[in-house]
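SUBJECT: A protein chain and its fold
Encoding: whole-number codes for local backbone shapes
RECORD BEGINS BELOW THIS LINE
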Amino acid sequence: MSDISRRNFGKFAIAGLSTLAAPSILQAKSGARLVIIGGGFGGASAARFARTNFPHIDVTVIEPQLTFVTCPYGNLLLAGARTLSDITHPYGVLKRRGVIFIHDWADAIEPDKKLVKLRSGKTVAYDKLIVSPGIGIKWGALPGYDQAAAQIFPHAWVPERGEQVLLLRKQLEALPDGGVVGFAIPGNPFRCPPGPYERISLVANYLKKHKPRAKILALDAKDAFSKQGLFQDAWNELYPGLIEWIPGSKDGKVVSIDTKEKVFQTEFGTRHKIDVGNVIPPQSAAKIAIDAGLTNETGFVPVNPYTFEATKAKDIHVIGDANIAGPMPKSGFIANSTSKQAVASAIALLEGREAPKDPIYFNTCYSHVGDDYGISVVGVFRPSEKGFVETPNSGGVSPRGPLAEKKTQRKLEAQYADAWYASITKDAFG
């Protein structure tokens, strides 16, 4: 980082979680109906921000689950460093603040009627709709990988109640010492770009302690990935000889899955025998966004970069992993940061006023790669007439200095990561 020290950036970004977009807030008319689909980082953050800053507006969240299990810190379960309860967050605080929760599936949106249809058969009317449904898995896009295959080779990429990550953990515990753990990693875009590599690191951490003769084979459709140098430094330092990463250009792209033979087949016909496999499949916006006609040919939702209103539907603002916001990553921090601008914009437009101008969107992504060993990447983004742009010299990755200094830095960043997780979950869920 050049303009801001990493430590000060982290403090600034965390402190700003609950205040982004606040200076331009306008009073909403009493009784206006803001409905939010999804209770994850984007949806919960939007609900809390709306209730705090627009107390006269009715805020309703449609979310089938009674609690939210986070993707961030889910990989720590695989290393035995966290439990499911540590990453499970209830909605009690939001409910006590006056947010109405409907625990049902949102099955369809009717933009012309401003209605959301629920699986129960009921409908919910809105004046403004925030859609934060997360990703959908493109079942069948990777031949051989469907819902049944996910019970053999878990994806553990959509948390729901945590079943998939617990299944992967159980399989690791049953892995014979000397076995092979395989990872099938997709091309971009997908949720949490550094996530597969943090997972590789923390599985390696578990294997080093409990299955020291086991190996990891990471098959990647890409030739480069987020924080690559930092991750590979850590792998060489902490897990020498344990991890083999094969990029797409060296036949790392997995093109089919054979659950019966437990084989990952790559682009040039190589068949890799796997004992425990984690398949991270191709992704799109969640089904409801596709069914509502909000997506384009990419499977994700194009949005106005200033307001997050879907370009294909008026009065529907799409945040989080479901939208197209590159170069911003699909991360929990981005969902939290952009949710506030979306809410402030939705209310301003509802009142016939201009949306807040000149918003700034922050991202900080920490990754645990071992015991007391953390790394990070940070960035600052702004909207433009051509889309989203990263502010030059605004971020960067952890320094790669001398080993003695690096050990201290990595330990501090692991602590910063824990503080970040505590702060962002408090900001979203209370």
Q: What stands out?
A: Residues 380 and 392 are 8 Å apart (CA to CA). Confidence is low (pLDDT under 50) at residues 1-29.
